[in-house]
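Onboarding guide, step 5: your first structure request.
Type a short instruction followed by the sequence, for example:

Predict the 3D structure of this protein.
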Amino acid sequence: MNLPQPLQELIDQFEALPGIGRKTAGKLAFYLLNVPESQLLRFSQALRDLKSKTKKCRVCYNLTEEDVCQICSDPRRDRKQICVVEEVLDLLVVEDTRKYNGLYHVLYGRIDPLNNLGPDDILIPQLMARVRKSGRELEEVILATNPNMEGETTALYLKNKLEEQAKKDNPGLKITRLAYGLPMGASIEYADYGTLGRAFENRNKF
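The system replies with structure tokens like these:
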């Protein structure tokens, strides 16, 4: 059965999205076909605004509608700390904890030699320039890249570069890595050696 071209095109566009299969793409397209026109217009307007009204913060590269995002422009944020994350979604997760009140830097990726992604392919040069500009005002850079091979490679590279830079401009700069080990509710019996080893390395006074 041949579907009308606009409907088929919409199904094809949904299917091109990550994690969306043919069946789900069809369900989404037919759902939109049957919603009220006012709702469909709001949906299409949101898609148009996504590109035209969304930009990257010129300081931390978080997504924003202004030149500087709400976090960077908030005078209540601690400007002595920068938390480095791989993606904006990671920033949102950290914010949801309400345990961190510093600034951020979004890399938009991680060093991944297997996919030909090096330090200059993500926003590491911008981070280094920002650290140099901050001088002695900056007290800590928190490396919050993911605990996988690429994230560890990125964190190690950043640690070496930041230490090298700190020797010149800011000898007191602390470079920290998010602690990780056993998650809440986990059983030691089922923990892998790497996770359990990290838990011992990062143990705290009780």
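Each response can be followed by summary notes, for example: The first helix runs from residue 5 to 15.
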